[in-house]
Amino acid sequence: MDLDINQYINIFVEESKEHLQSLNDVLLELEKNPSNLEYINEIFRVAHTLKGMSGTMGFTNMANLTHDMENVLQAIRNNEVEVSDEIIDLLFECFDALDTSVNHIIDHGSEGSTSNKDLIQKLNKLLSKEKNNKNNYSQRHTMELEHHLVEVLNKAAQEGLSAYKIDILLKETCMLKAARAFIVFNTLETFGEIVYSNPPVEDIEDEKFDLTFSIMLITSSIEAELLDSLNQISEIEKIEITLLDDSIDIIEINDVEPNTDKDFSEFHKEDTKNEKETHSNVGKIGKTVRVDIDRLDNLMNLVSELIIIKTRMDDLSGKATGENMTEAIEYLERITTSLHDAVMKVRMVPIERVFNRFPRLVRDLSKELGKEIDLQMSGEETEVDRTVIDEIGDPLIHLIRNSIDHGIELPKDRIKIGKPERGNLILKSYPDGNNVVIEVEDDGKGIDYKKIVRKALEKGLLTEKEAENLSIEESINLLFLPGFSTAEKVSDLSGRGVGLDVVKSKIESINGSVEVESVEDKGTKFIIRIPLTLAIIQALLIKLSDEIYAIPLSSVTEIVNISSSDIRDVQGQEIALYRGKTIPVLRLKALLEIPEDDVDEDLVVVVVNKGEKQAGLIVDSLIGQQEIVIKSLGKYLAGIKYISGATILGNGNISLILDVNSLI
Amino acid sequence: MSSAIDNKYVIFMLNKEYYGIPIDNVISIEKMLKATRIPNGPNYLKGVINLRGEVIPLIDLRQKLNMSIKEIDKNTRIIVVNNEDIVAGLIVDSSSEVIEIDEESIDEVPSSENINLSYINGIGKTKDRLIILLELSKVLEN
Fold first, then answer.
1. pTM to 2 decimal places
2. Which of A617, A640, A641 to mutate to test the interface with B (most CBs of B within 10 A)?
3. Angle between helices A259-276 and A37-57 (to 10 degrees)
4. CATH for A536-663?
């Protein structure tokens, strides 16, 4: 059995994470709109599903907690308890506890020892408090039925038959729910006619139901007989049989969709929604990407085409006439390019995966700091390579914390300066060529650049003289210097010893860049630009003697011709004039230990940049721009100077990628 | 670990001596491949090779072990090894066989010699020859 459980643990983790994510979303919605029972239903549904899942997996703590959550939610549904801030906070706490359990399961395979006693007690307290005044408001004595069913019931009554509504609750451990339900159906059909079931029979067959289903049966038998036979079926938790007689008010509805069915159809909707959100799983248990099946099909088709064309080339190589060969090779090239695109797409995941934890973060932080903040997110569907996704989470959290902590003012301060009480935090993502841009914008107090310069001076990060010549922009950029933090008071949020320099270096480590725009009293905007993918970049191929090197195009500013005589030697550093600025000129051949033959008078210089800094690299000749696949040089060569990686050229040769950052 | 694999070694020649590497560490044996030079590397680093799409550093074992340089010929082989996640190709004079050496037939390296023996893990004895067993972690040290 243990082995079986382990098999399902991955699925369990993935699904739980998805459910928790939707729980989180709904909780946030509920907080905004506490009177909406739809949200309560939704939360109930998630809690119920989690209860079933964790019960099956033997994670009793989770199951117990969700069970008690269900009780409270049920009470809300029955109008026994009002949704209050207290309840919402409690539900958030439950969510955290569940999240912790799931994470524990990811790391250790077990849910940990915290039994959430506190939470369960709180939940129960809530219930007992509210329930005292209302007695067991047991079963609804009304039923809503579709028109044709009402007719059937009436007819049955005329014929002297009885109608029963039978509610079945299967055991949580029940593995083959559909099969169990089938047995129930069969058993009941021996007594009479099943006129109705919820969910519909087809769904039950497809196992599209939770643990409960209800059946309406017209029969001449009595309740006890039904109960007897049903009790013989195993794996049933509870059977509830209600005789539909005059004591029950039957409300006739003409709605196409009976109310009792509604919960279920929502469940469906949610399911498809979840499918869209499938990418929301990062787990230590194997890194997986769930992929849209269309994309994989496309990939597969391309691969088959590739195989066909390969066979064709094999045939041709024997009796090659030039033209056919070229044609075939061109075709092959086209296919491989598409194949490459398709494979890249498989690796792409929507940025939503990072964004979806932010609403909660913003809620908690603003509550903690007594600020009122609306988070607006857009472009969550923008896709980036999953390797990038893993890297940008922390920097973004940092920037958001920053905005909430330092940017957006307290409500009273905002009113004082005529701003709306509620602050705005805008998180935006959109593709831009081969990059993805993420903006974190707030309408807070902006960055006080004078204060930054002052701080930088205090910390000895620059000299008085340097400070005098700084532009506003340059001053603001001091924020990114290592060891800089403007927080006057060390708070829980920003007093973690990490500054914006960490954000910057993290983003730069994935070949991205960070910019900041800020207007005092209007707000601050951080603009992060990251490559769509880390594995493939545009590069400029250059030649040094007979060796070919690649320079990432993202760091190339321009290619210029400079005459040898224009290069000056200043204290051992060669410099040249470029667009009115002097920039250092580096002789790549010397740096890369390539013997220098005759130096031409006209030099080809590739101007590269690292942030604000620029330098000119002297090369022999240019080959051109090309998309290259970055290959790691591996552990052994990790320390090699000036080289950041390698790529394999079309002819199978290896070309090294220059590390512009270390050159400048 | 199964003892069958434990005791098997890939044998190669270097400067007329027999050397051995545990077969567990050997990924493949290749004929000489065209390498791309790595600038600013140590002298024994002969560049990187494209081994079925992977970029792998190439180490001239003779130079690494401070032996005289030998021209590449038709017997020259690259033994691609993997040790603690470091993958590298070792250039050797020739390589042809895999043999089994019992643990009892392996002598420890005689200590207090004046030459550098840290590359050597032990000396394996078979009927007709002595085999120097290399300590890969030392060979793959930069």
1. 0.49
2. A640
3. 70
4. 2.40.50.180
